[in-house]
Amino acid sequence: MLYLKNLNFASKVPIEIGFVGIYRWFWYLFKLVVYLFVYKPMKPRCHPEFSPAKDVTIVVPTIDHGKEFEEALMTWLACDPSEIIVVTIEAARAPLELIARRCDPESQVVRVITVPKANKRLQMIAGINETKTDILVFCDDDVIWPSTLLTWILAAFENPKIGGVGTSQTAIPLGKRFTIWEILAAYRISIRNVEICATTAVDGGVCCLSGRTAAYRTDILRDPNFQYNFANEFWVKKYHQHSGDDKFLTRWLHSHHWDTWIQACPQADIKSTFKDNYKFLLQLLRWTRNSWRSDIKSIFFERQIWRRTPFTAYTMADKFFNPITLLVGPVTVFYYAFHQSELGPNYSTGEIIGTYVVWLLLSRAIKYLPHFIHRPQDVLAVPIWLIFSWYFAIMKIYCLFTLHVTDWGTRKGADDKETPVKGSTADSAVNLTADASQHELLPIRSSSSSLSGRSHLTSVKGSHLNLLQALVVCSLLCCCAIPVSAATALPKSSFYTSNALVDGNYNEMVNNRNYFASNSYNRQVVLALAKLRKACDKTLAASNETIYSVTLKTRLPASNNTKDYYSLARYFFPDTSEPVPNDLPYVDLDPE
C-alpha cells in the first residue's frame, strides 16, 4: 500500500522544481478560467453586412478524391456559399469533377480548376486569384461543417479591423470508433481550443488560424506582395517551405496590423479527422517544425506580435520551454528515487515513483476535463497520453534541429519537386509559363493592385543570420537555435511571371517610382523589371544615362548587365539612400 503520510519528501526536492510546477499550473488555470468565463463568440447581427450566398467563396486545395471529400462537400454546400473552388492537379481533375457534379448537379456553385504541380501554396494562390467575393474561406478536403458555420464566421467580419477568423475543432474518427492515435489527437485539439479562446479573449491574437478552416478578407490575399512572399518562403535561404501555410497567413495578418478572431461555439465548430495510425506521428513532426520556424520568426525577428498581442506572444514563447519542463520532472524524481540517502531512510524507490505517477495521472485527468465532458471514456487513455507527452517533448527537441526538413511528409505527391505534373494552365489562376513549374514563383506587386485597409509591406531586412548568430540569440532563451531567413528570400535562378510589375509605358513606371521606394520594394522591383515577360517600352543605357527604345521580347545587354541593373535601379529610386544589391542575377527576357 502506498502511504503519503511523510510529506517532507517535497522539501528534499529542489525548490526550483516546485516553482516550475506551480507556474505551469497557474498558467494553465488562468487560460482555462478565461476560456470558461471570459471568452464569448461574436453573434450574428439581425441585419448583417455580409451573407454567405453573396460574399463567401470556399477554396479547397486538394489532390485527393475519396469519400471523405464528398461527405465534406455536401456540408459546405449546406452553408450556401457563393462559390466553391476546388484547386487540384490534372490527374485528379476528372474524379473531382465527377464528385462535384453529383453534389452540385446544376454546376452553379462548385468549380474545379487545376495547377501544373501539386503544391498547396500555389493551389491556394490559384484559388485566391479566381475568387470574386469579399470573403475567402480556406478549408481542408475532409472537414465537416455545421450548416451555420459561415453565418457565424461572417459575424466577426462586422468588425472592420478583423482580417482573419478561425474556429474551434472537434476530432472525429475515420472509422466506426476512435483508435488510440485519434484519441491522442483529440486531446491535443481540446487543449488547443482552450488556448486559442484564451488568447482571443485577452488580446485578440491567436498563435495560428488553423488551415483546416479559416476565413480571410480577399483583398489581403490578392496583394501580389503577399502572394510572392507566400509562394517563396524559405528557411535559411535554401529550404523552400511547402507546408506551414496557415502559420504564414496568421503571421502576415499580425505583421500587417490586422486583428484575428476565433469563433468557438457549436454553431461554428468543425469536425475533422486525423491519421488513425502511426502516421499521426508524421503529422506531428510537420506541425512541430512549422511551429518552431514560424514562432521563431514572429518572436525574435518580426517582433510586431509583442506590441500588438503580448499575451499571444508570451503564449508562443512559453511553448519553447515545454520540452524542458516536461522532462525535468521525471528526471528529477527518478534521480531521487535511486539516491534515497539524500531523502532519508523512510522512502522506498517504489513509494517515490508511485507517488509521482499517481500525481501525474490525477493532474492530467483534471487538466483534460473539458475533453472528458464530451468523451468521458477517453479518461482510460490518460496513462498512454502521459507516455506520449514525454515522447513528444523529445520529438520537439529533435524537430528544432531538423528544421531544414520542409516536406509535407504524410501525403504522397503533395510536394513533388522533381517531376511537376503537367496540367491545364488555362484553368489555373496562377498564370505560369511553360517553365514556371520549375521555379514556383509568383508575381510581385503591380501598380494596378487594389489593396484594402492597412496591408502594407513590412520587410524583414538583414535577417539572413548565420548559424552562429542564431545560436547565440536563441541559446539565451531555449538553450538551442536554428537560423531564420527573410520571408522575401530571393531565388538564385531566373524565373518568369505573366503578371507584369509595370504593365504599360515608361511614364507609368516613373509615376510609380516614389510609391515603390516608400514601401521598401527596391530589391523586388529591380528583380521584377528584369523578369518581365513583356519587356519595358524604354530602358536606360549604362554608358550615358540616355533613354533608348527597345522592341518587345528584348534582353538586357549580356556584356554589361550588372551596370544596366544598377542604372535602372538608381533611376527608379533616386529618393532612397538604400544601396542597390550587388547579387542580382542576369535574367534572359526572351527564353527559348
From TrEMBL:
Q: Does the keyword Flavoprotein apply?
A: no
Where in or outside the cell it occurs: the entry states: Membrane
* Source domain of life: Eukaryota
**What SUPFAM superfamilies does its record include?**
Nucleotide-diphospho-sugar transferases (SSF53448)
- What keywords are annotated for this sequence in UniProt? Glycoprotein, Glycosyltransferase, Membrane, Transferase, Transmembrane, Transmembrane helix
Q: Name one GO cellular component term.
A: membrane
* Pfam families the UniProt entry points to: Glyco_tranf_2_3
What stretches pass through the bilayer?
A: 20-38, 320-338, 382-403, 467-490
Annotated GO molecular function terms are: glycosyltransferase activity
> Mind telling me what this protein is named?
Glycosyltransferase family 2 protein
Organism expressing this protein natively: Physocladia obscura
